[in-house]
Amino acid sequence: MTNNEVTFAHNASIYGYDNRDVLAAVAAQRLVTLIMESQNDVQNLNKPFHLLLTGGTDSIRMFQMLASNPLLPAINWNLVHIWWADERFVAYDSEDRNARKAREMFLNLLTSNKALAESHIHEMPADERNAEEIAAASDAENDAILDAAAHDYEEEIVSILGKEPVFDLAILGMGPDAHMASLFPGLPQVNNRDRIVVGVNHSPKLPPMRLTLTVPVLAHSHCTWFLTAGAEKGAALMNSLSGANNPEYPASFANGTDEISWLTTAETLQAAIK
Q1: DSSP assignment, residue 177?
Q2: Geometric angle at alpha carbon 252, from 242 and 203, rounded to 5°
Q3: What secondary structure letter does DSSP report for 105?
Q4: What are the pLDDT digits (tens) for 201-224?
Q5: What are phi and psi of 260, to 5 degrees?
Q6: For the segment 153-186, what is each residue's pLDDT rounded down to a tens digit?
Q7: 65 neighbors 103 (Cβ within 8 angstroms)
Q8: Pick the CATH number of 10-272 from 3.30.70.1350, 3.40.50.1360, 3.40.50.10540, 3.90.1150.10
C-alpha cells in the first residue's frame, strides 16, 4: 500500500459523481449490465437472478432511469426475482410503501408487457387493518402483528433461496443517521443474528412500523451497492466507511461476497471529509 492509498471498511469501492442524476443514471446502467452479463454467462444459463431493492430518493431516481433504458428488452425478466430489503408496514395502496414507488416508476412497465411475471415480485406484507383497528392497537398487539408478517416474508425467502439466502445484487440506501434498510442505530434489530426478517416498532423515522432484513442477510449478497447522496449524509458516510460492523452505524455492516460499492456524489464526499 502506498501512502496515498486509503482502505475502507470491507475494502469497499467508492465512486463520486457530479450530481444525483448522474449517480442514478450510472446505477441504472450498471444494473442492466450486471443482469445481462450474468444471464449471458454460459455457466449461468437459465439461472434466476435475485435482486434486492429498497426505497429512498436515490433508488427512485434510478427506477426512473431504468424505465427508459434501451437495453431492457435484452434481459430475460422471467429469470429475475424482485425482493425488498425493508418496507413500511402500511396499507398496500399507501404512497409510503417502497414497493408502490418501484412499481409506479419501473416494475409496472415490465409487468404490463408481460416481460416480468407478477409472481416474481416478492413484496413484503402490508398492514391490512383499518384506521380504527390501528389506532386501538396496543404496543404488544403491534409487535405480534409485525412478527407474524416478518415470519411470513422469511418463509417466502426460505422457500426460494433457502435458510441462508444470498441475493445476487442488493441495492441499498443510507440515512443521515447511517441506518440501512430499517436497521436503525440504538434499536435492537441491528443486533439480531437469529432471524432473516424482523419487525420494527417505533422507528425513529416515520412511518413507525416497518419490516426489515437483518444484518446476516445484508452482509452476504454477492454484490452490494449503496446509492447515497446529499451533504447531510457526509458524516454518516465517513463513519460507515471508517470501521466495519459498528452498531452505531448500521450501514457499516453491509458487505458483498464479490463486491461492495458506494455510489455517491462529490457534494457528499466533500461533506464527509470536512
Answers
A1: T
A2: 130
A3: I
A4: 999 999 999 999 999 999 999 999
A5: -130, 115
A6: 999 999 999 999 999 999 999 999 999 999 999 9
A7: no
A8: 3.40.50.1360
